[in-house]
Amino acid sequence: MSARTTLPFESPIAVLEDKLVELEAFSQEQDIDVSHEINKMKEKIEETRNSIYANLTPWQKVQVARHPDRPYTMDYIRAMTTGFIEIHGDRIHRDDRAILGGFARIGDRKVMVIGHQKGRDTKSNLECNFGCAYPEGYRKALRLMKLADKFGVPIVTLIDTPGAYPGVESEERHIAEAIAVNLRESFNIKVPVICVIIGEGGSGGALGIGIGNRILMMEHAYYSVISPEGCAAILWKDRAYADKAAAALKLTGPDLLKFKLADEVVPEPKGGAHADPGTAAANLKEALLRNLEALAKKPAGELMQERYDKFRTMGIFEGSVE
Hints:
- A hairpin with a 2-residue loop joins β2 and β3 (109-116).
- This protein is 48% helix and 16% strand.
- It has 14 helices and eight strands.
- The chain has helices spanning 11-30, 35-53, 58-65, 73-80, 122-127, 135-150, 168-172, 175-186, 203-207, 228-235, 242-249, 253-258, 277-296, 300-312, and strands at residues 81-86, 99-106, 109-116, 155-161, 193-202, 214-218, 222-224, 264-266.
C-alpha cells in the first residue's frame, strides 16, 4: 500500500484503516478466516468517511483543496480528453510550466484546455513553481485563448493556484499588467469559455484565466480574493486564525452559488477527488459536456454580452444601513 497523506481531521479514518491492515495481515499469517470482521471494518471506514466529509468546515475544505494527492490539471486532461496537443511558450520570454494548455477533445467536442499545474515532488514543484505562474504564464494563456478564438474552438480553463508568483522576477516582467490584459481580452473572446476551480482559486492568479460564461467548482475547491492565512494575518495579526478567516471569507461552493459567483458545484467522491480521481474526472467531464452543449447554441455576440453582464453584476447588493 502506497503512502497516503492524512489530513488532521481524517485521523479517525486513518486509525480504522491501520486496524484493517493489521486484521488482513493477521488473517494471512494465521490462515484464519476473519472476512466477516474485515467487511465490518470496511463498512465502518466508509461510514466514518461519509460522516466526516458530509460535515466539513470551510477551513477543512481548504485543506482538502490543497491535498498533495489531489488530481491536477494534467491528471484531468489525461482522464477526460483525447488527442491532447500541448502548446508551449508566450512568444516573448519563455515557457512557464505553472500554466499549460493545448487543443484536445472532450467526448466529440474540440476544446482548448488551459490550466494551472502543480508538482508531486520537489523537482516537479520547482519546475512549475508550485502552481504560481509568472507573467509569461498568463501571456501564454492569452495566446492560447486567442488561438482558440481564431479557430472557433471553445475554451476550458482549470484553475488551481494559491495565486500568481509575487516575487521580484514577476514584478520586473509586469505580473499585474499581464493579468489585467487577460481580464480585458477575455471579455472579447467570441467562443464559449468555461472556467473550473479544481483546487485552489487564489486571488488574481485565478482570475487571470477565470473569466468565463460558466464558473464551475469542484465540491471541495475554494475560490477567494485572499488565502485564509493571509486574511488572518491582516485581520487578527496571526495566521493561526486561518479557520476563522476561512469561515468569514465564504469561499466554498455553496456560498459562492448563493452569491452568484459560481454557477455549478461538481460533486466529488466521498473522501475528496484524491480518494477516487477517476470518478472526479468523470463527474467533471459530464458537467463540461452539458455546459458546452448549452453554450454552443448561443451566437458570439450573446456569449460576449453574457460574460460581460455576469461579471459586471458581481458585488452589487441592495440594502440599507440602519
